[in-house]
Amino acid sequence: MGEPRKPTSAPITALNFEPLVGPVTRAEVKAFRKSPGNLGLRTTAALTENNREALGVGVILLTICILGTEYGLIYGLFFVSEGIGVILALIAVLLLFALKWCWDTLHHEVFVTSPWGRWYRLTRFAATNGLTYSAQISPPRYPATIFLRGGDRAATDVVGFTKPTPVQMGNYHYSGEVEIGRVREWGFVRLQLDRRLPHMVLEAKIRRRLTGTRFPVSFSSHQTLSLEGDFDRYFTLYVPRDYERDALYVFTPDLMALLIDEAAPFDVEIIDDWMYIYSHRPFEMATTDAYARLDRIVETVGAKARRQSSRYWDDRVAPRDVNLVAQHGRRLRRLEDRLYVIGASVIVAGVVTILVTEAILRR
């Protein structure tokens, strides 16, 4: 789906959340689903695994409730003793309440938290507050590391702000790469910076210890940089070789403190003129909690990162007004890249050895 136009957005703290959390009726969702403008959504819409499970459990519960109610009313009142009949009648009443609960649950799952209910809420929320919203971007054209992994790549429920520079928040998933510890579903925040910076990655140690998950790419260890204080307890910082001084210019003690306070569970990546903050769990985009978290990150970590990098320039590329980073600083060297080189070298050396040995033996 294409990106919508970019209206002027309100500050995150001043957003009107009523369209997001207010009541939604079945008729509203049905009308939204049939809207001609949602043809693209209809071609990609499908119940999530959670909704399918909820529907299955709900159908089973409804069946049990109906059968139980019939059993209690018929057998309890007409075919057994009075005492047992009263008990079964009470059970039947309880099952009727259970029946009502099942119906409410199914209604909530299908028309409120289902994809269509969620899309309707977020579309209404974005329109009310002058934000951009894309239910799905497939594939997302972002340069960051996680968006280049696997197949069937898609960013979903992407909400965009323009305060004071572009900020987007959403979820992302891809298929393939089933290696243990590799996360394939992410929540992300992306903030635009004023200047291009060297490629730098902060891998959250707390998240890795608690969940066993790790960043989807492994970087060679000679690119790690140790920073002062307790920062190394929370993050592993990867910086291109010969860019250690540049990293220290960006990651000042006050920015490090904000990262520890507000972003310790998240991985952080700076690439080109964007800063990405990754959660190993998707964000609940139809809840106010997601935007409260976004506001804290943008107003603390994001604002400080923008201020700190606003005057950065790579002195390897002159003059100062050129907003570029030298070639070897634009991307970190990945460990797998080195392994590929080593593996290819071993194969070539093996083939050459075999050919030379055969030539010698033929003489």
Q: Count the beta strands.
A: 7
**Radius of gyration over C-alpha positions, nearest whole angstrom:** 28 Å
Major pleated sheet: 7 strands, antiparallel
Contiguous uncertain segments of 5+ residues = 1-8, 46-51, 337-352
First-to-last CA distance? 67 Å
Order of helices and strands: HHHHHHEEEEHEHEHHEHH
Shape: elongated
Please give the oligomerization state of what you see.
single chain
Tally of DSSP helical segments: 12
Q: Overall mean pLDDT score? A: 78
Derived from helix and strand composition plus strand pairing, the structural class reads alpha+beta
Helix content: 40-55%
Strand content: 15-25%
Describe the structure using short key phrases:
seven-stranded antiparallel sheet; 7 strands; alpha+beta; 363 residues; disordered N terminus
Report on this model:
The structure is a single chain. With 363 residues, this protein is α+β, with helices and mostly antiparallel strands. The protein is built from twelve helices and seven strands. Strands 1, 2, 3, 4, 5, 6 and 7 form a seven-stranded antiparallel β-sheet that branches. Helix 4 packs antiparallel against helix 5 and helix 10 packs antiparallel against helix 11. It is elongated, with a radius of gyration of 28 Å.
Quick overview of this protein structure:
The protein has 363 residues and is an alpha+beta fold. The chain is built from twelve helices and seven strands. Strands 1, 2, 3, 4, 5, 6 and 7 form a seven-stranded antiparallel beta sheet that branches.
